[in-house]
Amino acid sequence: MKETYGDEVVNDVILPLTKSLNLVIDQSNALRGSVSGVEKTNSDAVLLREYNEANTVFDGLTKTFEVFGKTEELSTLASGLPNPEDTSVQARSQVYDVAQAFKASGMNWTKSLQNAVRWYKGEHAEKSLERKIVKDLNSRKKKFSPRPSSKAVQQTFVSREDEGESLVRKAYK
Questions:
Q1: Residue 149 within a domain
Q2: Distance of alpha carbon 45 from its chain centroid, rounded?
Q3: Which residue, 48, 105, 119, 126, has most beta carbons within 10 Å?
Q4: Residue 32 or residue 136, greater confidence
Q5: What pTM does this model have?
Q6: Would you say residue 22 lies in a domain?
């Protein structure tokens, strides 16, 4: 460049511009790095908030669906993470994955979690209904009276006085 423009132009114009441009590029790269760090921190905070909200919803559903269990009672591994072999963790994970799919389609997290819970209720309604019917039938089974038979029931009395009282009661009926 010195041959084309000369020493004076290169030293006075091009070198200061190059230094300024390099400084702007360095600042821009540093800004990009800090923005991506903030975005990562924000996304981690959002994920934690969503996870806590999902746990609150699952804890509220334990009366209807016992399979979700309470968050404090979930079995954990030595690392402190939930045990993926636990049925409660598997059921929660299933609903959480469906909620993530709803969120990816453009819904906010609360609505997507509500829709995922509705999906789970619909998916497991048959089992739940079957359990309720069996429970109801078992409770009614105790209330059924036996079929009438033609055999007369013979009463036994502790004393002759009890037998006499029974005869008098029958006579006055």
A1: no
A2: 18
A3: 119
A4: 136
A5: 0.52
A6: yes
